[in-house]
Amino acid sequence: MSKNSELEAGKPGQFFDEFLKEQGTYEEAAEHAIKRVIAFQLAEAMKAQGMTKMAMAARLNTSRSQLNRLLDPDNGNVTLATLARAAKAVGRSLRLELV
Q: Model pTM?
């Protein structure tokens, strides 16, 4: 079987996932990717509502600098409670699941 046939038969990213697992970095990469997606979704929800960072910080009863840390895709030190409060502030909910 050729490499192209194998790639077509698998799902996109399957080989990259396997590579990350072999390197022992899969979990860390997945956590980082999830945080980036959530930060992006929060920023997009704020933009869609025309909400400024100051207004969002006020809704969360926090400072703008704290909000910047929350929206920073590279900052992984955000609690689930904070993410849930931020989601609620933009009319959304946070859903976690084990797969």
A: 0.76
